[in-house]
Amino acid sequence: MPDPGSHSYDVRRTRLRAEYDDRGVPDQHADEAANERLEREHPARPLGDPGRAAGPQGTRGTSRGDPSIDQPPRPVAAELELRSAAFSDHTIVPDRYSRVGDDISPPLEWTRVPDGTEELALVVEDPDAPGGTFTHWVVTNIPPDARGAGEGELPPGGVPGRNDFGELGWGGPQPPVGDDAHRYFFRLYAVDRPLGLGEGATAEDVRAAAKDHTLARGNLVGLFAR
Question: For residue 109, what are the β-bridge partners?
């Protein structure tokens, strides 16, 4: 049975939510119903359960030397609220934002930026890509008073980094046909100093520069399959 936080658990949750949507259940109640059903189907295992996969909550290991992408973030002082008008957390990203659609970035907005923030940085990655974690978007130098990004736009003042397509800016989802839905982790970092990164920075650059300087972090997960 899939464990909470695992890929198969996320996919099951999305399918259940879609079933409730098809029945006309309002979004909030559909989320609650899907969560309650999953809790009944897959109750949490006790700590130390030998049947649990390695890692927090049975999460899968990751590649490219970044164990954080597929695991819960390390505790920080606060949590940003990151959301999109185009999709909810752990729901399907519309085709429009994919590589096979219009390939434009989805709209984002955030709140609860803590005092003392000097810069915001955004990273979007797919830990389920066949070759290992794949970077789809990096944006640095976002001013602390920015509160979002419009569809197909950088956050105001943001500087584009390089994605794993080898391009600057957004590169939308393009998982292999027939794969289970891949997860796309949108992560916004609030840091207490300028990161000093320019155009073309990578996700690894952001994590290295933000280490020990992250005041808060926001997380949003989108799913996509072909």
Answer: 83, 148
Contact 153, 211 (CB under 8 A): no
- In a shared domain, residues 45 and 89: no
d(C-alpha 173, C-alpha 98), whole Å? 5
149: domain CATH number is 3.90.280.10
Domain end position, chosen among 39, 59, 79: 59
Beta strands in the chain, from DSSP E residues, in sequence order: 78-79, 81-83, 91-92, 108-111, 119-126, 134-142, 148-149, 159-160, 182-191, 214-224
Q: How many domains does the chain have?
A: 2
Cα 82 to Cα 49, 85, 116, distances in angstroms = 33, 11, 19
Tens of pLDDT, residue by residue over 177-222, are 999 999 999 999 999 999 999 999 999 999 999 999 999 999 999 9
pLDDT digits (tens, 9 = 90+) for 59-82: 333 334 454 555 554 454 469 999
Residues 225 and 177 sit within 8 Å (Cβ to Cβ):
no
Domain hosting 34: range is 1-59
Q: What are phi and psi of 166, to 5 degrees?
A: 85, 15
